[in-house]
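S., here's the first fold you wanted:
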Amino acid sequence: MADVPPGSTRQTGSLARRMMLIAAVGISILLLLGGLALERTLTSQVTRAFDDQLVWFGNAMTASTEIGPDGEVFFNRPLGDQRFLEPNSGLYWQISGKGHDDYPSRSLWDRTLKVPTDHFDAAPHIYDSNQFAGEPMRMIERTIILPGSQTKWWFAVAASRGELDAQIRRIRAILIYSFVVLGLGLFIMAGLQTWYGLGPLRRVRLAIKRMRTTGANRVTDPLPLEVQPLVQELNGLLAHSEKQAEEARTHAGNLAHALKTPLTVVMNAATAKAPDLADTVIREAAVMRRQVDHHLARARAVGRRAVGQSRAVVWDSVEAVLRAVGRLYERTRFDLDGDRTAVAAVERQDLDEMLGNLIENAAKYGGGSVFVTVSPDAGAGWCEVWVEDDGMGIPEEERARMFDRGARLDTGKPGTGLGLAIVRDVAEIYGGTVELDESEDLGGLLVKLRLPAAERTAD
């Protein structure tokens, strides 16, 4: 299989060709079945009418037949059709009985209808016969015992199939011609429908081409209802790409701005040959490293979010973080409660990073107790993680400021002041939020991490 060039996709054939092929197959099958059914119906109707005429002649013969003094049959009145009197006219009758001479119509001339006399047909029996060479016939026969006679008489009427077969051929020719014209018309209509129906997709392609050549950032052309979801998803993808590009530009600018000041301090100290140059470099390098770590965390979260639908079991992530933080703060008591099956629509690594910052802050600034609650009941489509401690808490007027990069309330303990900022930024990337509140049970700080919930899969 040939490799696909970069930036291209494999083609699976023409959509218009598929639609035309489906239409052609469907129309052909329907016309074939409909034509066969109609041909069968019409030919059976014509044949039935032909047979009814023969039955009528047979009934007329029965009504006109009597037994003569010599025991032979005769007609008390002639049959009404002149063809019975014309030799080889194609319409014949004959009455036969065992021990009696055949009583034929004049149209038979010197021929005789071969009627089997070894059975008794109380009802008219109709069948095709080829007993006359070059003249296929349709025959009707019936066995009757006439009044005044004990003889079984076989009444037979035969008619040439020439006229019947000609009518059937005309019917079939008309049907074939009509259905061919109808099929061509339907194929043309299907082609026009395909061309017109796929028109909106061509307009979408042209709109995307205009976006690439004119710099437009949305598809705004009026389109049919069925194409609107595609256009909406496309516009959503464009908006998502624009947002990611804007975020990348913003992060790059923020990182450049954050590194500019430490670099300036280092350069000034180096230029002035300051005696504390080494300490200055170490201090400012630590600042730059914190800023780089912060922006890398955001970049990783943005990249993983763009990959697809993320899933992480919140309980498993909390337990893993508690084990890690518990080894650093052995004197702190950690409690965990809530729903073990809650699943958040985030990457596990990003969830661990957010929970690690929150639980470590609670252990660091708390009084020795940390309580974590996993709750899926934060509203439809959401799940929350509450992290509470028994520390001093944060005054309400200071809570908003704590999400700023580098903001710290207790400067007496080691820290970078980026923990809550990282948690907020990563949560917002996934569409979540972080709120600070006061813990009613422990009296310290309560951090509410709210994340979009993912669908739970069956075990």
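And the second, which I think is the more interesting of the pair:
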Amino acid sequence: MTKKQIKIGLASGLEARPIAMLVQIASQFESSIYVDIGNKRVNAKSIMGMMTIAMDTGDEITISADGPDEETAMAEIGKYLRGDN
């Protein structure tokens, strides 16, 4: 299992469209991927789950991944959330 803290760098924060993109990215990987913010833990592949948490630019969240492609998943998700694309 890999865990990493990420500071959200997307200019718009995570509203509906950016959340949908995050779910699409996470769903490409076989690993289980979760987002932790505050006391909430949500499956990053669940659009409904991800819509229940509010994340804004500058927020620190923890991403965890467990599975055969966890390192690649963490790198791609981190790149997206930091706004590195």
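Why I say that: The chain has a mean pLDDT of 93. The CA atoms of residues 8 and 57 lie 5 Å apart.

Talk tomorrow,
H.
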